[in-house]
Specification:
- The complex is a heterodimer of chains A (about 475) and B (about 110).
- With about 475 residues, chain A is α/β, with parallel strands linked by helices.
- Helices cover about 40% and strands about 15% of the residues of chain A.
- Chain A is built from 16 helices and 11 strands.
- Chain A has an 11-stranded mixed sheet, with helices on both faces.
- In chain A, β10 and β11 form a beta hairpin.
- The longest helix of chain A is centred in the last third of the chain and has 24 residues.
- Chain A is globular and about 70 Å long.
- Chain B has about 110 residues and is mainly α.
- Chain B contains 4 helices and no strands.
- The interface between A and B is large, with 76 and 62 residues.
Chain lengths: ~475, ~110
């Protein structure tokens, strides 16, 4: 069986119709990982026992022949920031190198309940802090489309696993672009749902008011099927809401005729790569041809999104990461003679350079005398950024932009310049700050063959529109590409 | 401008010690990043409410019953938690009942 291009429905149908057993499918994926992942580095831990146990369960269900749940037998990967019971969970950090989680994240429970088979845990930037995966405490991930380039971050392992056919779909988390940007760099679909749509219970916290769990898929439809299994209120996360979960799949394939799509001028200015611009403009043209009305809009505070984000996110991170002190779990430095010495030595040894940088920045902006000037100021600007979207969505149904200013850059290119690295998220952070949903969908390639991503943003809890537009764009662009190849 | 003294002070607050090299690097990085963040001061935010949570925008604009972000409240009742044995499994040092740590004597 050719597993490389397998979609969720194809995998599930093959298992349902007994063309392949779930166990054989899992074995085929582990073989592919063994032969492909060495130079890519997408996985940190393989959860083979757990995968085989789940596969046996699905095979037993399939033998009974009473139908199968939506993800039955579908091999997926989980970003290593989600806890998995009895499986090592590192968050990409040396400080959690040997941490075996005592419970499952809610999303992990829900995906498994829908029949998904967890192949393993994927590499990521340490505590999800990074845009290139070079901040992994273990080894960087390389882009499977071009191994001299980064896969994006922080969910680079999940994006690379899907792109290289080492998982059918994957789970990631997005705090400033960490699903959408790697999806764009690796040429797959990556969806960030509305804040509160998907539970964060068991997601190792980076910035609690910004962390969004969400799926990667080979197609837009696959992200919809994954979201369906994950979405909804969770009593263990009080920021999840009671808003009813629609049938996402039902809306896949519906037309965009008459839909109003906004294009913000601020996202097409200085710093945007010419090929990315051309790719996204071609995507917008396809949406117009499909009957959508394209409307120029303005999101006037866009320039302030990155500085706002790096105050809010680092402030929350400095507080969330205070728990890693060597006392209850994780690394403990043997050198500490007193308690406070143990804390410092443990954190010095366990955290990497970018995590220390963000803890320092976050601690600084929260410290006495600077709280009002930085933290409160940034929270006020966050309101202005959210207001930009509210005003835009009074006029349009969805917004289309580039996902990232450039295609995948080279390893080492930005690692010594934190500010340049932060700007890789310039088109994605604002949606995290506002809590609105967004997806990145592939829209062509650069001359060097690097994938380009188009971002579609929607109103709170309107994933349905985001998915509809993304699906139409995906198919129009694929058809156009086929035509170009054959002509 | 962040000074060397500030770096030491913030490191202490954050329970980090940092090597001499790291301190030099952080002094440079913090100044460059904060310099960029300073552009927030170009904006007049008088009368703008701070937004700590995604839902707080809705508190401002929506009637309570229409607020989709009305975060759920639950009764404050004790519920089962992780068994002691499980909670201690990842402990760097434990006596089987408690986490063991070095002597609690401040610097």
């Amino acid at each position: 069986m050719d597993i490389e291009g397998l979609t969720i429905d194809a995998a599930r149908t093959a298992v349902l119709e007994r063309q392949v057993t779930a166990t054989a499918l899992v074995d085929a994926f582990y073989q592919r990982i063994a032969s492909e992942d060495g130079p890519v580095g997408a996985y940190l831990t393989l959860s083979k026992e757990r995968a085989w146990r789940q596969a046996a369960r699905i095979d037993a269900l399939a033998d009974k022949g009473d139908g199968l749940p939506s993800l039955a037998g579908v091999p997926i990967a989980i970003k290593d920031v989600f806890t998995t019971k009895d499986v090592r969970t590192t968050a990409g950090s040396k400080i959690l190198e040997n941490f075996i989680a005592p419970y499952d994240a809610t999303v992990v429970t829900r995906l498994e309940r829908a029949g998904a088979i967890i192949l393993g845990k994927t590499n990521c930037d340490e505590f999800a802090m990074g845009s290139s995966n070079e901040n992994s405490g273990f080894y960087p991930v390389r882009n499977p489309r071009d191994r001299s380039r980064v896969p994006g971050g922080s969910s680079g392992g999940s994006a690379a696993a899907v792109a290289a056919g080492m998982a059918v779909a994957a789970l990631g988390s997005d705090t400033g672009g960490s699903i959408r940007q790697p999806a764009a760099f690796c040429g797959v679909a990556g969806l960030m749902p509305t804040y509160g749509r998907v539970s964060r219970y068991g997601l190792i916290a980076f910035a609690s008011s910004l962390d969004h769990p969400g799926p990667f898929g080979r197609t837009v439809k696959d992200t919809a099927i994954m979201l369906q299994a994950m979405a909804g209120r969770d009593p263990l996360d009080s920021t999840t809401v009671e808003v009813p979960v629609p049938d996402y799949r039902e809306h896949i394939g519906q037309p965009v005729t008459g839909m109003k799509i906004g294009v913000p001028g601020e996202y097409f200015g200085e710093g945007l790569d010419a090929e990315v611009r051309a790719g996204v403009e071609a995507g917008i043209q396809e949406l117009a041809k499909a009957g959508a009305e394209i409307i120029p809009i303005s999101l006037p505070h866009t320039d302030y999104a990155i500085p706002t984000y790096y105050v809010v996110a680092t402030a929350e991170a400095s507080s969330n990461l205070a728990r890693y002190d060597g006392a209850r779990y994780g690394l403990r430095s043997a050198e500490g003679r007193t308690l406070s010495e143990m804390y410092r030595r443990t954190r010095d040894a366990g955290f990497g350079a970018e995590v220390k940088r963000r803890i320092m920045l976050g601690t600084y902006v929260l410290s006495a005398g600077y709280y009002d000037a930085y933290y409160l100021k940034a929270q006020r600007v966050r309101s202005l950024l959210a207001r930009d979207f509210e005003e835009a969505f009074a006029k349009v149904d969805a917004i289309v932009t580039p996902t990232a200013p450039t295609p995948a850059f080279r390893l080492g290119e930005k690692i010594d310049d934190p500010l340049a690295m932060y700007l890789a998220d310039i088109y994605t952070v604002t949606a995290d700050l506002a809590g609105i949903p967004g997806i990145s969908v592939p829209c062509g390639k650069s001359r060097e063959g690097l994938p380009i991503g188009m971002q579609i943003l929607g109103k709170h809890f309107d994933e349905v529109t985001v998915l509809r537009v993304a699906h139409v764009a995906e198919h129009a662009l694929a058809a156009k590409l086929d035509q170009e190849v054959s002509s | 401008m962040v000074s060397e003294k500030d770096v030491l002070y913030v490191a202490e607050l954050a329970h980090l010690e940092l090597t001499a090299e790291e301190r030099v690097r952080l002094l440079q990085d913090l100044n460059s990043i904060l310099g960029y963040i300073d552009r927030l001061n170009q904006l007049d935010t008088g009368g703008v409410e701070p937004m700590a949570q995604v839902g707080s925008r809705h508190d401002e604009r929506t009637k309570e019953e229409d607020n989709p972000f009305l975060y759920a409240m639950r009764p404050d009742e004790p519920r089962p938690c992780l068994p002691r044995e499980e909670a201690l499994k990842n402990a760097p040092a434990s006596d089987g009942t408690f986490f063991k740590v070095p002597k609690v004597i401040e610097r």
